[in-house]
Hints:
- The chain is mainly alpha-helical.
- It has ten helices and two strands.
- Helix 1 packs antiparallel against helix 2, helix 1 runs antiparallel to helix 4 (111-140) and helix 2 (35-55) packs across helix 4.
Amino acid sequence: MIGAFSIWWVRVLTMVGIALLSYSMVWYSFDTLDAFDVMTITYAVVIIATVVIENARPNGVALATGLVPTRATPRFMFHGILWAVASLSIIAILGSLLGYRFEASHGVVVIHAFTRIIVLAAGEEVFFRGTIFRSLEERFGPAIANFCTSVSFALLHAGNPGADAMFLLNVFVASVALGITVAATRSLWTSMAFHCTWNVVLAVFFGPVSGYDLGVCQFIFSPPTSGNSWLIAGEFGVEQGALTGIVLAAWCGIMLRLRVFDPYVQAAQFRQRIALDSYHG
């Protein structure tokens, strides 16, 4: 088993299999759960499986996943939160200048809803950036890994309500930016913090998150009666607006210039590469 997990495609297929099996078992075993609850449990299993698989690799340690907190984690989390808030603030300010307004809604703030939002966002990061990206990166390098992961990430959202070409392009660009972040920092905490903060702020202050009304919205970012709606948002929400893609693309350039990484994760991954080279040699 240790030898099998040293092969990149074995890890990818194993994680995909775990996710599909977990989803199927939960879906057919608990009739009272909705799709979001099932996905929440599935991604919780994925997070645990990521650590287990990492420990099963030659010289594998959980720290190498970039998921285990280190002394550098708070800084990376802060970067992710700041990135999400800054991006949505830019969209809100420019949208307001073009006639968009925040209107009160009637969402209910419940802990269960926020738990689902956070676990789903963190689980997607662990699945895509923590498993698929890292597995492909070890074999093909960061550029190909990021492209393949981002295509997969966009396709996963293709079936969401109201998804169109602009939304899928924005999801792809967001994934590229997150992949660059993981490659630069060697940590998952910036991407997880960004993804979680982005989804929570969208759900509370803007409306739909990836086409879904999660029931906690306190405000709706409503468009003007005419003009420029394509630039800021569509029926799908601000993630369908062209400005979102522009802002996220700008962040890609900023992330490419990052020169900060988690030394603890970097060291663990370096030791693992040496072990893998010795194993295959």
